[in-house]
Amino acid sequence: MKTRDIVSCGMLIGVAMLAGYIEQTFPINMAVPGIKLGLANSATIIALSVLGKKEAILITELRIILTTFMFGKLFAMIFSITGSVLSLLVMLLLKKTNKFSNVGISVSGAVMHNVGQIIAAALLLHTKAIIYYLPVLFLSGIIAGIIIGIISQIIIDRVNVFQNRSSE
């Protein structure tokens, strides 16, 4: 890894952790409990586009582990890891096809993150009834994915302009 990539990974982990902290501290009051915008996921989308798949995986998993240690929600880490693994797999596959925009990848990642969390909840709670929550989570995942995808694309465009200027 180049020094610039290591620094970029560190910055994205820090920004993702800060975004997650802000989201926990000032939750967006939705009508349905547990729904979040997922601001921290923008770091994964940015890393996939600017750095690469290994870095995106590293950033996502380190963010989850470090956030768990900082905020002390070990049980929540099970849901985060389950959701992020499924989300990352889908986003990596879609990115590899070069047929999806970052917004499309973000929406797919958000929806699959919710699916992963529902699977974890169904297994931990020994009930299939929680699956009825999926339509609400699909809708919230689509909306959040669009917002995070747009924000991420704006940042990616600005990073690319900055990188092009610095390489001249």
From TrEMBL:
Gene3D superfamilies to which the protein is assigned, alphabetical: 1.10.1760.20
UniProt keyword list: Membrane, Transmembrane, Transmembrane helix
Superkingdom assignment: Bacteria
Segments traversing the membrane: 5-22, 34-52, 64-93, 105-125, 132-156
Keyword Cell inner membrane applies: no
Name of the protein this chain belongs to: Gx transporter family protein
Species the sequence originates in: Lachnotalea glycerini
